[in-house]
Model the fold of this input.
Amino acid sequence: MILWIFTGLACQTIVAQNAPASTIGIVTTYAPTATVPLRAVSFSNIGSCNLKIVYDPAVAIATSVTVGNPLLGGNLVYNVSAPGVITLGWYTWPGVTLPDNSVIFNVNFSRAGPGSTLIAFDDNGNSCKWGDGNSVNLNDIPASDFYISGSLNFLLHLAPVTMVPMLKGNPGMMIHVPVRVSNFTSIGRISLFMQYFSSALTYQSFTNNSDFPNLVIEGSIPGQVTCEGNISSGSPGIMLADSSILLTLHFTYNGGTTGMTWIDNGSSCEYTDEFFNPLPDTPFSSYYINGSVTPETTTGTGDDLTHVSYRLTVGANTLAFSLPVPGQVSITLRDIQGRVVMIPVKKETMSSGDHRKNIDTGKLTPGIYLVTLTLNANGQMLISTIKTVFNF
Done:
C-alpha cells in the first residue's frame, strides 16, 4: 500500500499542470496609438497570474492594460508608471478555461517616437508565474516555452510628395495643371497653397480627380490658389496610388513665363493622417515640387504627359521601372528623415520602356526608405515616390 501511494505521488509530479503558453502580439502601425494583444494556449483551470513585461520607452509609452476576453472575469491590477516596464496581476475563482489563442490581456501604448521595440516578458523565476484554480503555482520551465515575446513598430508617417509639372502653352489657350501625389497613405486633411504670376495665368476652375472629400479650391485672389479638404471625423484616411492626380487646376494662359510655386508658412502646405496629426514634410523642397508654364514654340496643348503614369518597383538589390516616353531620369534614395543616402541614377537619358538598375544595399542599414524617380521629358516633369523596407 505504501509503495502504491509513493508511486501515485510520483506520477502526479510527472504530469503536474503546465502554465499556459503566453504570446505577445506583433503590431505595426502608422497610428499614434496601438493595442498589443497577449494570447494564451492551454489556458485550462487558470486562476491567477503575475507578469512583468519590458519594452523600449524611446519608442512607446504603455498607458493601460485591459482584459481581453470577458470570460476571464476576476480582478486585474496593473502598473505602467515606470518607463519601459509593465507589471500586472490577475486573480479569479473558480479557475477559468478558454479556447486556445484567446486574447487574455490587451496592452495599450502611445507613440513616443518612430521605430520598433521588442515587447518581452521579464522572468526572474517569480516575476512571471501562473496559478491554477486552487492558487497552486504551475510549471513554466523552460521559460522560453511559456513566455514568447512580441514587438511594436511605430512607422513614421510622412507627408505625400506633391508636384505640378512644367508645361508649355500658347496665349489664349486653356492650361490644365495636374497636381500629382505619391506616398498618399491614410490622409485625413490636406492644405495646399500655390503662387504664380497673375500676368501669365488666370484661374478658372478645378477638377477633383481623386474624389478627396470636402475639397474646396479658392482662386479668387489673382496669383494664388489655396486648397483645403478633409475627411469626416472617425472616417478612414484616403489612400491613392503613386503618381495619382489629386486634382487638376484650370487656367487661361495669357502668355509669358511663370512658376507655379508651393508656399509654406508652417501650415499653408500641410497633410495630416486620419487622426488629424500633421505629417512631417521637412525638407519642404523634397515634398513639394514646383512647376512652370512657358510659351510653346509650336501649336499644342502643352499637357501631353498629364495623364500618363509609370511603374517603379524595388527588389532586394534592384530598381525596376518603366518609362512611358524617353527623357532624363534621376533616382534618389532617402531615409525616413528625408536625408539623401544614395543617388542610383543622376540625370541619365533613357529610352521609353522597361529598365533595371542595381543598387548597393550593403551600404544601407535596415529600415524604411523613400525611393523617388524623376522623369524630365518634353519640357515636363513627372515624379513617382514609393516607400520600401530593406531588411538584411
In short: The two ends are 64 Å apart (CA to CA). The first strand starts at residue 21 and ends at 24.
